[in-house]
Amino acid sequence: MTTSVDIVVVSTACHTAINRNIYKEFVRRGMSVLLVVPTELTFNSGSIKADEPTADDPMIEYMTISGGNSRISRFIGITKFLGLHRPKLIILDNDPVSIMAMQIGLWTKIFKSKLFCISCENMSLGILASYRRRGMKGIPFAFFKRMMLLVSRKLVHGVFTINNEGTEVFKNESFANVRKIPLGFDPKYFQIDPTARKALRSELGVDGFVIGFFGRITYEKGVHILVAALESLKNYKWTLLIDEFEIYKSKYGENIHHQMMRSGLIDRVVPINPKHDEMGGFINSVDVVVMPSVSTRLWIEQYGRIAAEAMACGKLVVASNSGALPMLLNGRGILFEEEDVKHLAEILKGLIVNSLSHEYSAKEISNYAYAELSINQQMEEMLSLFEETHAL
């Protein structure tokens, strides 16, 4: 039986329950929303099943996804499913230059619906740029991307970007209706919380100045830069809270562990393993959040969700000037040049001994994040574009 809904959201990110919260806001505005979520996703560490629906989730359809690369993956049976529900518009949480966008875009053209994509892209889609990044081996895939781009540009009604560079990329490629949005945090989980701070610090057994690093332990996230900076600050009292990582899971993780051991820092490191809905409490427990991301030929920081979440909790963020981080902080944090260990050490020393001041208070930082970076602002930006383009 064919039924009609306002919005179908096709999203691998909604495999994780907390990423569905933005779409709960659409439901609260009176729209009917149906999520398409992968039954499971495969990572280097193995396959992980999707989170079960929560009590107030929109309707969810779990589907099998094929292909590991986001540009060539697709949901098995998606067009038949869309035919059963005839949405007014489709939000594809995937890049418009992809097989998935072309497949769904063709359906929208036939059935008079509209497709909007959410892209994390922040690097040129040009063939020359691809050659500079990957050499000759990148040329065939670059041509393939250009072919997909020519098709998807005619099928995609609008593109939501999450950084300034991505906005420029898609405007330069002549996509219609390009709009930058925040990758919103949920205010329910991220706020200034002195009670959580006190409880977590007691539970973790930490006091004094606590530095937080939250996120993946990979070269691009620059953990080695932070450890090197802290090595020069051994004469000061501080503790490092860091997301737990299995030492031998990767060569980089193994190197970080050895770096901590050689530097004599291992006893000052407290590993944590919070669920995403617990992250706010852990962020509250620290005094500063450090994001020392490092750009490579193939990757530049696309957003930095932790920065927005930390700011919502009123925390000062010290970040490298990689990619989107300066845009996110917008003057309300402290930036240092990528890989500048000495400057990062100077900043942290100033914060530890309380000789480095900052013009914004915790409340002002939090208020900014709530006004500009929350899921509420994300929803308002999305709805604004839908209304302007008469998509709803």
Can you tell me about this structure?
By secondary structure, the protein is an alpha/beta fold. It folds into two domains: 7-184 and 374-388, Rossmann fold, CATH 3.40.50.2000; 194-372, Rossmann fold. Helix content is 39%, strand content 19%. Strands 5-2-1-8-9-10-11 form a seven-stranded parallel β-sheet, with helices on both faces. The chain has a six-stranded parallel β-sheet with strand order 14-13-12-15-16-17, sandwiched between helices. Helix 1 crosses helix 15. It is globular. The model has no long low-confidence stretch (mean pLDDT 94).
**SS element count, helices:** 15
Average predicted confidence as pLDDT? 94
What profile does the largest beta sheet have?
7 strands, parallel
Spatial arrangement of strands, main beta sheet: 5-2-1-8-9-10-11
Number of domains: 2
Properties at a glance:
Rossmann fold, seven-stranded parallel β-sheet, alpha/beta, 15 helices, globular, 392 residues, 17 strands
Question: What secondary-structure arrangement, pairings included, does this model have?
Answer:
Blueprint: E1 7-11, H1 21-28, E2 33-38, E3 40-43, E4 46-49, E5 59-63, E6 65-66, E7 74-75, H2 78-85, E8 89-93, H3 99-111, E9 114-119, H4 127-134, H5 139-155, E10 158-161, H6 164-172, E11 178-180, H7 194-204, E12 209-213, H8 223-231, E13 238-243, H9 251-263, E14 269-272, H10 279-285, E15 288-291, H11 305-312, E16 316-320, H12 325-329, E17 334-336, H13 341-352, H14 362-372, H15 375-388
Parallel strand pairs: 1-2, 1-8, 2-5, 8-9, 9-10, 10-11, 12-13, 12-15, 13-14, 15-16, 16-17
Antiparallel strand pairs: 3-4, 6-7
Helix pairs in contact: 1-15, 2-3, 3-5, 4-5, 7-10, 8-9, 8-13, 11-14
